[in-house]
Amino acid sequence: MSLKGLKILALVVIVVGLGADLATKAWFEDLLEMDPGGVPPFGRIELIEGFFALEGTYNPGVTFGLAAGATVPILIFTVIATLALLVWLLATTRRSAVLHVALGMVLGGALGNLWDRFQWGEVRDFFLIYTGDPKTPSFEWPNFNVADSLIVCGVILILLHELFGQRNVPSSESAGTN
Prior knowledge:
This protein is α+β, with helices and mostly antiparallel strands. 54% of the residues lie in helices and 15% in strands.
């Protein structure tokens, strides 16, 4: 695939990822009767009892609720990180579909969570993985959303690609034609 085609592929992944994230957040926010001013958790729907539920929460921090309440620093960091990833995506001359898709996934997810932070100062989360009794689980993973999934999967793909992927260093001739 041409470098231009890879950039378009990444853009499609960003748009589809962002769209899927914002659409699911809006849908589950309504379904689970989430209220940005209310006290979480909100509605809960057991999908696989003892393992997986939909449970509405708002996360005022970052991953796993860390840095809760540090909205402005989180916003600043997220904007800088998103811009850095965008520069990386636009500047790379590596002809790797995996790298371009992975960067698109991370950017789509980052933009989805960034939207929530600008809109509400926190992020809408609704997927819940747990084990045991729903009322007193023995293990509970922090609630997450589609954006979080995109970011985690994209970062894993980037790491795997960088550690084990083929290296195709562009020649000086082809670098000018991209």
